[in-house]
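User: Here's a protein and a ligand (nickel (II) ion). What would the complex look like?
Assistant: Let me lay out the input and then the predicted complex.
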Amino acid sequence: MAIRTIRTMGDEILEKKCRTVEEMTARTKDLIDDMFETMYEAGGVGLAAPQVGILKRIVVIDTDGTPYVLINPEIIETSGTQTGQEGCLSLPGKYGIVTRPNYVKVRAYDENMNLYELEGTELLARAICHECEHLDGILYVEHIEGELMDVEPEVEEE
Ligand code: NI
């Protein structure tokens, strides 16, 4: 496994539409392993393949200690709304207020190319929406209410 370089906003690869994954290969398995390692190392809860420069429809998410791989994901159901802070590893040190569905059901292939469905609420629902949009070249800045803000540096306790 290896840490890959995370592309940041302004890199045009983040604005491109990703290609469908047709089959699992050793190379794609390595990519998925690297995406998890890169996401965990950066302290994120989700990462999409274009963020490491690969235009394939692959997302990894881990919001609560359970890792999910979503290949060729399709959101098939949403309900409710949630409004809150959202960030992205491709915009380090920034966040914005974004409204998303509070419930999402997504259909995707796992790392063995088995079709499955995943349901999520709150942060997981937000992460699924955010990461799936990366596959169509969309960043959360397109949805923010108000200004893009700087994350305050953590104040050290005495
Ligand atoms: Ni992102």
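Summary: The helical segments are 26-42, 122-134.
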